[in-house]
Predict the 3D structure of the following.
Amino acid sequence: MISVLVIDSTNSIKLILSSDGQKITLYKDDIQALNAIEEEKVSVVLLSYAVRKEQTPEYIKLIHAVSSESKIVVIAKELTEKQIVDCLIAGAKGYQEIDRLDEYADKLIKVINAGEAWITRRMVAILLDKLLENN
């Protein structure tokens, strides 16, 4: 069973997910969620960008500090490429627009849990360009 922790102040992510083969826990408070991630060593974290907005990359780093094994996917209405890249560089393993989450949720969780990324090929190219800039 895959343990999935959802951080979402609106509950909209959890309503989309099916609990088939997954243990899903919802936290509306980001600090309580961070404590739970540290204690439970959660497999997959679905993080609503709306919870911390522009502070989301820093929050992703906090999650990694308490549980480097947890794989984080950012869920949002729509982000710019820069916002997505900032989250990925901070340690997120993927990004999914909430409008299409119902189509991809089960596959996304399985893929992320297996250690793969959930990003578009375009985002891969942007990340590679960013890595080249930093060398």
User: Anything to note?
Assistant: The mean pLDDT is 93. Residues 101-113 form the longest helix (13 residues).
